[in-house]
Amino acid sequence: MVAVVGDVSAPGSVVHGASLLELLTVLAVGAVLAGAASHSVGGLGNVFAVETARTRIVLALLDARRIAYAHERTVVVRVEPGAREVVVDSDVEPAPVSLPAGISISSAPATRRVRFFASGLADNATIVVERGGEAGVRGRIVVNQRGGIR
């Protein structure tokens, strides 16, 4: 801070102000913080897109489980690596579930399907969705033999 003594408007008063160097320092620090924040916020878009895809697939799997149990028949969910959708094969409510732009299935069961049985049981399966290749953001879905999905 710079103190100026002898202001014309009030004899003997002291006026406080900031020097040009202090103002430039504050602006430089603000610019660095803004740049870091914008980079972090940009990465959140990928995380939200992957989480949206993961949620859509989980809901499709839960729906397939519900249909299998309610209609006492096996329901198959087709999952293809590299695909941008999963398909619930059911004569009751057949429905493809699309994934958000830029998101694909990177890993799927070897059979490329998850079956839900009328008893409530299911095939063990792990499905991975991702955005951005190897260094990108990934989300994992696990179906256990008891039909649990996490």
What topology does this entry show?
Blueprint: E1 2-5, E2 14-17, H1 20-71, E3 75-79, E4 85-89, E5 95-98, E6 104-107, E7 113-116, E8 125-131, E9 137-143
Antiparallel strand pairs: 1-2, 3-4, 3-7, 4-5, 6-8, 8-9
Descriptive keywords:
150 residues; alpha+beta; minor pseudopilin epsh fold; four-stranded antiparallel beta sheet; three-stranded antiparallel beta sheet; 9 strands; 35% helix; rod-shaped
Q: What fold name goes in the CATH topology slot?
A: minor pseudopilin epsh fold
Helix content: 25-40%
Strand order of the largest sheet: 5-4-3-7
- Binned strand content: 25-35%
How would you describe the shape?
A: rod-shaped
- Give the count of helical stretches: 1
Give the rounded overall mean pLDDT: 83
Total number of distinct structural domains: 1
According to CATH, what is the class? Answer: Alpha Beta
Total beta-strand segments: 9
The appropriate CATH architecture is 3-Layer(bab) Sandwich
> Could you give the distance between the termini?
58 Å
Topology pattern, helix = H, strand = E? EEHEEEEEEE
* Secondary structure category: alpha+beta
The main sheet comes to: 4 strands, antiparallel
Taking pLDDT < 50 over at least 5 consecutive residues as the criterion, the unreliable ranges are: none
Rounded to an integer, what's the Rg over CA atoms? 29 Å
